[in-house]
Amino acid sequence: MATSADAVFSALAATSRVRRCHNPFFRQQLLKQLHDILRKNTSELKGSIKQDTGVSDVEATAEIAYTLNIVKEHYSSISPEKELEEEYRIAKGNNAQDHQIPYGVVYIEPRLDHTPLFSTISPISAAVAAGNCVVVKIENSLLNITTLLRNLLPQALEPDIFGIVSAAPETTSLGSVAQVYQTGHDSSKILSTQLMSPERKVVAIVDRTADLSSAAESLISARFAFGGTSPYAPDLVLVNEFVEKDFVNEVLRKAVRYFSTPSQHGNGSAEKSNRTGKASKISSRLKLLGGDKNWSLNILAQGDSGAVVKVSARSQHLVPLPPRTAEPILVVSTTSSLDHAIDLILNDSDEPLLAAYHFAAPSHAKYLSQSVSADVSFVNHIPLPLLLGPSAPAFRAFDLEKRYAKEHFTKGQPYFITSNDRRVVELEGVIGETTGSKKLNALLKSSTQEIKEKKRDEWIAIGFFEQGIFIGLGVYGIPLLACIGASIFFGVRFGLRKWAVL
């Protein structure tokens, strides 16, 4: 049950001060209770997810199963024996330079319009596993999942370590609280205590060296799975013009199942409303794309559940990329080369892409990964777990499976009892010495010795540009040399015959 934000934060702050959640056995108990309450209500959760988000029965089941496994993994990651050993390092005369402590209280604003269960439970379970109390914002709404989560979560997590609020708290209430924002916040202005999910474009590049069937399958799944609302669904696919026709044919052939498969959401007015609402959103987005001053639109295929379109630049100059979309619409455009695709992306924004998908031969994919700035890049595949939940928090270690790791909710607090490092011992040995002492002179002499330059291996790396040079030499150099050689041969023979006659 939601209560006032001030009361919730005050109660949880008191619990964090007594370090109740630092006990590994207590954390395991909380995670087991959370897993138990979720697994016992899978049918209700599945029904709510399907009705609220319009996903299929298979997708709702996959989200629930994956979420439950995340909780189990966090439970297994807690090792009372290891934590006991770390706690007594100082008592045994050992340093604890990697010692971490939880923030104490974590505030979470989950995204509930896409895989709502995973988006909510993933940060909660990670924060609890790290030893924090948790506050979750779940607004009053008509969504079934919000009502269900309001009822289930308080049954699993004790009131002095968990609370629900219906509105965002005042900034003064947050203080040193760790904060998770999955949508609606400017990720360019982030405090050290904040984990924000950025909202930026996702672009795929399909080179002429790619496996077109595999690329089409991966991109279709990423764009249309889970209603097409994943932040990691590709907003634009740049295809080399030499393979565009074959790639589009593969896409259309594989996209049929998303356009023609009957809805699995249930029967009656709710199902009809879901289909109508989705079709209306798709039509609105297509109208917006068609009105773009920089791109012309050609609809290749369209159904109630999605569309495949091709966009072409109206100008020969570089123009901004089409806008992001949260609808199941696969947008394809052609490029003349890898460098053309790279230039289009670099011209669009100074910010890195949220994700980049490169479908090409490994050597070409290496060049693309280095040239296209993105938070994360995937080569010749798009892993399904990526499509679950919000985008990974900016400026934090990327966790593909769980999105939020325990380390995201802890901070360093190292302890030292000894200084065994050689440089520290040397420095301590000269402090207090007089100028010109042997120890001081030896330290200075050692530090001023010239760095011995390491010799580089004598080999030539054959990369993308080198391959181009060699191909150019092969195409133009060999025929030219053959012509020169033939000219010399016939010229010499002609000369010898002429002088022989004379």
TrEMBL record:
<dbReference type="InterPro" id="IPR016162">
    <property type="entry name" value="Ald_DH_N"/>
</dbReference>
<dbReference type="InterPro" id="IPR016161">
    <property type="entry name" value="Ald_DH/histidinol_DH"/>
</dbReference>
<dbReference type="InterPro" id="IPR015590">
    <property type="entry name" value="Aldehyde_DH_dom"/>
</dbReference>
<feature type="domain" description="Aldehyde dehydrogenase">
    <location>
        <begin position="7"/>
        <end position="255"/>
    </location>
</feature>
<keyword id="KW-1133">Transmembrane helix</keyword>
<feature type="transmembrane region" description="Helical">
    <location>
        <begin position="469"/>
        <end position="492"/>
    </location>
</feature>
<dbReference type="Pfam" id="PF00171">
    <property type="entry name" value="Aldedh"/>
</dbReference>
<dbReference type="InterPro" id="IPR016163">
    <property type="entry name" value="Ald_DH_C"/>
</dbReference>
<keyword id="KW-0812">Transmembrane</keyword>
<protein>
    <submittedName>
        <fullName>ALDH-like protein</fullName>
    </submittedName>
</protein>
<dbReference type="GO" id="GO:0016620">
    <property type="term" value="F:oxidoreductase activity, acting on the aldehyde or oxo group of donors, NAD or NADP as acceptor"/>
</dbReference>
<keyword id="KW-0472">Membrane</keyword>
